């Protein structure tokens, strides 16, 4: 099989995701550029206010990535600052930034394998992994499917656990617009981190935000966001701690402000298309060859991605691997993605001691997961085209 070309082959090529940005947003960005104030200013403040509305009035700060929001949450909680024995429990099946930030602050990631059905962290394993060094849990809502928040906070709030002041940093990078039992993600819980990277359901091109518990945490977030600086009066400046350069620009915030009003429409469209995937896929065939479908949740998930776990043994019998399926779909004008390989098998993490066999469910998913096209401007006939092509490739046609 040929390598997958990095360029798009035909005009009707269907990528796995595509941005929807309206003309009013493009005009709004042009206005910001003309205004003379393009870095953090009034647009960022306005964006934070709208995000806070979305999160039930909780304090929210915007940043230039979802990665740094999680790092700052750990710093606010003092994790890794005083002891290199601090442990943070997270999933091995996520974008690698989720665990890189744990290393960044000087703490130790502790992985708990996924539940093979939801593909999210297995909360039984989280509970079993908690010890006296555990300082935080970072659950990830993979593809937008929310981790069970009731169970998560029951575990985090147990008296034996709270003796160690354990915190939760919800990596909700993929779940803006999802809800748990009707409550939008971000309206409750401890720290909640969202990403607005270009592939996310709502974008600022690059960017993210952190939902905080109170104004004291928000003040710390302000400092960590920009070099630790605290301003007072017209000309006062003090530096209290080491901060980074994590501020969002007004240009990016204006993109986000143009995206937010579309959240419900985008989410509904994604749910409708996901439902259509289930209607079109041949469930018996998938079961027979062990091609695993995602959880059919059309009420809580924002369907950030539609991912199947390819049938490894079925493909191996045909001397095929995931890359061959991707190439065959690409030849039929369909783009796919891989989100994600299991983190603990990356060279960096292997050097820290992890190895094959440590987290078998995450490893199987990491080797075989395939992200199919899903974005709001897609049509139902696009879904049908993807399903026909995928099933033909799996049938060996
Ligand atoms: C699960 C998860 N966590 C964290 C991030 C990091 O977000 P960002 O790319 O905005 O830094 C992403 C982004 O892809 C993600 O999908």
Structure summary:
The chain has 397 residues and is of the alpha/beta class.
Entry keywords:
397 residues, Aspartate Aminotransferase, domain 2, 2 domains, two-stranded antiparallel ribbon, 13 strands, disordered N terminus
Q: Helix and strand succession?
A: HHEHEHEHEHHEEEEEHEEHHHEHHHHEH
Reported for the largest beta sheet, the result is:
7 strands, mixed
Here the CATH topology of the largest domain equals Aspartate Aminotransferase, domain 2
Strand portion: 5-15%
Structural class: alpha/beta
CATH C-level category of the largest domain: Alpha Beta
**Architecture of the largest domain, according to CATH?**
3-Layer(aba) Sandwich
Rg computed from alpha carbons, rounded to a whole number of angstroms: 22 Å
Would you write up a description of this structure?
The protein is of the alpha/beta class and 397 residues long. It has two domains: 6-260, 3-Layer(aba) Sandwich (Aspartate Aminotransferase, domain 2); 263-395, Aspartate Aminotransferase, domain 1 (Alpha-Beta Complex), CATH 3.90.1150.10. Helix content is 39%, strand content 13%. It is built from 16 helices and 13 strands. The protein has helices at 23-35, 42-54, 66-76, 97-104, 123-129, 149-156, 159-162, 215-225, 250-259, 263-280, 283-289, 312-317, 322-331, 347-351, 360-368, 380-395, and strands at residues 60-63, 87-90, 108-111, 134-138, 167-171, 179-180, 183-184, 191-195, 208-211, 229-232, 236-239, 306-309, 369-372. The strands form four sheets. The protein has a seven-stranded mixed β-sheet, sandwiched between helices. The chain is globular. The model is unreliable at 1-9 (pLDDT under 50). The structure holds pyridoxal-5'-phosphate. Pyridoxal-5'-phosphate is lined by residues 65-67, 94-95, 97-98, 140, 171, 173-174, 195, 197, 208.
